[in-house]
Amino acid sequence: MNLKSLNIPNIDFVNRRHLAMMFSAVLLIASIVSLSVQGLKLGIDFTGGTLIELGYQQTADLEEIRGKLNETNYKGTNVQYFGSDTEVLIQLEPQQVSSAKLSSSIIHMLGENIDVRRVEFVGPKVGEELTNDGGLAMLYALIGILIYVAFRFEYRFALGSIAALVHDVIIVLGVFSALQIEFDLTVLAAILAVIGYSLNDTIVVFDRIRENFLSTRKVEPKPIINDALNQTLSRTIMTSLTTLLVLLALFYLGGEVIHSFAGALLIGVVIGTYSSIYVASSMILALGISKADMLPSEKESKEIDARP
Amino acid sequence: MNHYSGWKNALIAFFLLLSALYALPNIYGSDLAIQISSAGDASIGEQDLATVENTLSTNTVDYKSIGLSDNRILIRFESSQSQEQLSTQALLKATLSRNYVVALNLAPSVPQWLSDLGGRAMSLGLDLRGGVHFLLEVDMEAVVAMSIDRYYNELRSLLREDRLYKGIRNEGTSLLVTFKSEESKQQGKSLIRGELLDMQIVEGSESELQLSLEITPAAIKASKSTALKQNITTLRNRVNELGVAEPIIQQQGSERIVVQLPGVQDTARAKEILGAVATIEFRLVDEKNDLQLALNTSKVPVGSKLYYFKSGRPLLLKSSVIATGENITGASSGIDQNNAPMVNIQLDGPGGRSMLETTKEFINHRMAVVYIENKVETVLEDGEMVKLRTKTQDIINAATIQGTFSNRFQVTGMESARAARNLALLLRAGSLSAPIEIIEERTIGPSLGADNIAKGFLSVLVGFALVLVFMAWRYRVFGLVANVALTLNLVTIVAVLSLIQATLTLPGIAGIVLTVGMAVDANVLIFERIKEELKSTNNIQKAISAGYEKALLTIADANITTLIASIVLFSFGTGAIKGFAVTLSIGIITSMFTAIVVSRALINLIYGGKKVEELAI
Known about the structure:
By secondary structure, chain A is of the alpha+beta class. Chain A contains 13 helices and seven strands. In chain A, the strands form two sheets. Chain A has a four-stranded antiparallel sheet. In chain A, strands 1-7 form a two-stranded parallel ribbon. In chain A, a hairpin with a 1-residue loop joins strand 3 and strand 4 (84-92). Chains A and B meet through strand 5, helix 5, strand 6, helix 6 and helix 8 of A and helix 9, strand 18, strand 21, helix 13 and helix 14 of B.
């Protein structure tokens, strides 16, 4: 038997939680400041507008394209390379007249023999709806999870897991805001996936905490939580590593279109792993979890005893 | 202990074989093909197949195979024959009648026995195969305005008989009627109640001699839904004219239509055709009145209307219309003897009669063709979104009537051959009953689609390989078992996606990649648990069994919560998000089966019922 791998680590997570809380607080405050000062760089999915991706045979001359666009009276144009210097991304803010024809006229103006790789046009009304739907999706996901965890565990666990999720979401949004990476629909999907992932991690730890509360005679919550964290640590790290491996593959090989999607998940998985160790368990400790909360309620056990 | 009964193993093997079978269609590539289907409801039969085969052989077209199935004819080509595919499409379009839709397609080359078993390849989303997605919104305000116009006329003819009213004013969403007397008002009211069932009196609008009428909510709803349905029909006709294989035209909500055209290359033309509300009218030129006088005094003579050519040149035309686009039953474009683009027009009975009478009576006079286009666009005005409606009416041609004609004639004066082609198509497909606006467009060019497939496939492959190596290194024999389970999971996901014909998109591939990463979690949980159990017991069989049992509840809890998140994603998400949620949900469910049941079966086969000294974990 390989004894070395059987060693369960004994790291004092619980007593280091104040340090972790400070770390989290700093990240959260920085994220919120960034979000409120410069906000998110929303993509056209949410703002409305037009996006055109063009493929040139040779290196594209951005100055020439900008020059041609400046001759028109379209406002808020942004021209940049996308992935390589033969591919160009043109973005336009919503114009005075919102029309799907805009892209055709720009492509026509730029000349022939250009490969039109992608055109996206989102009308202002659609953008508004997508923003609302996105917000609602996030809210409903959180509520659904809250109900399930409260039902399967206890309300303190539900609050703990939601605290961890809100923590993760705010920090991922904060990174996107601080680095001004474009926030589009796929990033929103990634954040919802982060919610799912981080929760997965948290639930595994909670499950173990409950089990330990029930199986040992100890009543003090701190060592019990600490044991659970140590027992699940190697699983937490293993799963994070395998997930990070595939995400790295997606990030580097998946192409420009899902680059920010993979990026959001990468950040999210790292933060989610951290939060399920430190944030969620600190939260239930702070809420005053105890062995009594884990036992079946008195009334139920009396009923069982009363049976012949 | 640690032994699955024979039937349980057999059941697992059966499920896995079934998965493998239905995942199989995806390994066969697809052929370049031309798809011929019916433009209407008529079915395609052996006779049509014979006609097509005949055409192909007389023109010595080289193709791989031809077949009739699912009410469509598929002509397959070798992958090197893309030129032949295009030229054959042009040939068939020219020779077959307009009752057929001739479209380019990619046909999966699944062997017959497999497709007989219901095996089909996954359907690829627009972002993987290239194509256009449009979201169109019908201008419902215009629909209501049009119904008010109609009721205005009905109301007038209803009250006119007994000369009951003094005046009727159209106030946009209501009609204000002024009666001659109290008596006529009462009479009018009972007439309206009896005959105009779709109108009701606006509450509190009644005064001594006046009252306002509005359309009942039920009638408004009905006219909106009719407008939407008619527009869908027209769009379907237009898409058929464009020749698209497997288009999707669907209602979304109460005023929107989704149009998806896979594989369309000329997206600019698709946009022009789908959104256009264009028709033509035939009118006589007013040759009696002085145009210059009308322009100078800006007073247009009674019975005439002032129109302009596209060049800006004005012309007086008579108000009465000889025929409109609604009378047109056929239209095709071509080139006349002067090499100018033209449209051949064919009129229905009433249109033909009216044209015959007019051309008889007004021979050697001039007749004009007016092109009418309604447009609706959203404009930002002081931060508010306002719908801007424009109606263009251009004279495209005014020529002397050389001889009498009725239902077949030609119209020239189009700017270009492309304009003539588009006009002919729009006249054939019928006009939209209400203006529509494209409010969302997502176009993926064919080159990006191919790129996306290649990159998506590569990242699945690399991610998968990395996880395999990592698991084998970390958990040895158990790692290999997990790897087999993971591989089977991938096969099962593909099988389920193929079976339910869910659309695979690039975010969907990302969902699969993520599932690969997360699916091993269940095995990691189990294996770590077994390791722990080994610490407290020397009974290896018991440790394996306890490891699986204790991890089960945790795995279920963790996966159900993730499933909740992905179901929410599915129900709220659009396009990209939905595709991701579908594969993630399927992946979570199938991974529970492979990671728990299949891996247990394998472990049982390896270690179960034997005396084991040491576990390679």
